[in-house]
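Hi U.,

Before I forget, here's the chain from the pilot set. I'm dumping it here mostly so it's searchable later in email.
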Amino acid sequence: MPTEYHFAFWNLENLFDIENSPRRDPRVARILGKDIKGWTQALLDRKISQLSSIIRKMNNARGPDLLGICEVENKFVVDLLIQSLAPLGRNYQIIHHDSPDKRGIDVAFIYDGDLLEVPLPLEENVFSHFVMRRTATRDILQVTFKTKAHQRELIVMGNHWPSRSGGEAESDAYRAMAGETLAYFHQRIFEVKGDAMPVIAMGDFNDEPFNTSIVDYALGLRVANMVASGRNPYFLNLMWPMMGKGFGTLYYNGPNLLDQFLINKNWLRLTSTFKIKPDSVAIIKFPEMMNKKGEPIPFGGMGKPVNQNGFSDHFPVETVVIEAD
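Structure:
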């Protein structure tokens, strides 16, 4: 029987350590300033509890096999999140890297160590790719995972591209830089690991599937045949079927489909050992996460009003990966 894995990604909306945390870099503390004021242990615990309640419901209440996350300040808060997932009985492990982001927020992966492993040495299988821009931003986190079932490798690239703050057009060049960085290291994977390596990129791209940063720079296309037959390191953007249907993962002046999965050509052949289960790509919208308009309910904080019954300003996304016998 083929083995199935539930992959998900969620922007956790400012999962920060407490106000006076000794784990915070003084530079980051200065930049955060008064935004972090009042972020108590009680609020952090409540935020963790809210996020955990949703994660535990994923994958038919089994929890995800691999979860990419962003907007986490440090490994400490990710450890707290894993502790809150203990009722699932999973052997969750963490891959996290401190990025140079000016607000101190990072990308990380949580994965079930009974299903997936990161081969040793870690320095040959975990990379944090620096995105060049004047003001520091999140790295792209690249991890080689190996399945326990068949000892096959696949590479996952976690993304949290520069935001649209200051205006979409004004910040567009920064996301183009991130897209070019993703495409460059996708090409490097082929050169180092061989051109048969399956790669999946996931994350909050802060752009939609049709934007230039994804199409022209990251080479994320909507047509599978072009990806499968092209000589360039193309990705297939799995979110295109949702376009035009009014779906979004973040709502600002309407729905914005910013959180996405992209796969390369090595998922698309008849003989591919890893495939995406048909119709498994979805936006996770449990009823308690939504307001009356169907939009995500933010938890807030970091200078915004706190709603302790909220979760995140983003909906998570999910898909099912199938590994052949």
